[in-house]
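Recall that a protein's primary structure is simply its ordered list of amino acids. Everything else, from secondary elements to tertiary packing, is in principle encoded there. The following example makes that idea concrete.
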Amino acid sequence: VGELAGTMLTVNLRAVTSWVGIARLFAVVLSCVAFSLVASTGEYWSPYGTWCMFTWCFCFAVTLVVLVLELLELYPLLPISWDDFTSAFSMLAALMVFTTSVVYPSTSIGSPCSRNCAQKAVATTASCLCFLAYALEVGLTRAKPGDISSFLSTVPGLLKVFEVYVACLIFSLLDNYALKAGLQWCVAVYSICFIVTFLIIIVTIGRCLAYIPCPLEKILVGYNALALVMYITATVLWPLYSFKDSERPNPCNSECTWNKHLGVTFLTIFNLIAYLVDLVYSTRMVFIRTP
């Protein structure tokens, strides 16, 4: 009990004075500035505005908790792989804030701007700088070549987070796919790859890899190859069945099915590239050992 109490009272100033800690402090401050300014306008009740507010608040809260746990050195008490968790979260936060930095000004700032222009402009700037802070954290915590002690800090691990996030964006855009078998297959591809990749992340963070009685690294290479093949089929079939005998209506706003299908097409290509790079890096890590 005495050792535990001593551990709980320890203060690690490097948690806020190291480059990673400074990047996290900037992320906390900038995300707080962004959601505070947008909240002061009262114009965030649309679906896109709600998403932006959730992103800033979520990233602010989790990053603040990470800072406190590292400052007081309480994170060893958690039954998770801390390095994997922080690496996965920083990557996820960078992707979420980047998306928000694009979505918020495009949906909330009119042309020309009519109300609360200064607050919206500063909030957008703070969001962009917040993305840079999280991107810096990802770069600082990324594993060096040959270091696989923290899987989610390696390139394949970071790509896993990217693949899951892009799949979530795809799900948010899915519309009118039930009537065509080709589109149903594409949705099955997105769902299967999302579930498996998400489970890999959870198992890694939960320190459950040691309980898997098989060569997990080689299984991951095989899964990446299978996911790549599946995404190749989706990359071909989705635009083929979505745009065949279909012209873009005029007008076509953000809720237009044609635009949503176009967004899914591009996101499918992004994930295809991600799985390709993931396969290349995973193969090098497993089968090409550098001295």
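The chain has a mean pLDDT of 88. The two ends are 45 Å apart (CA to CA).
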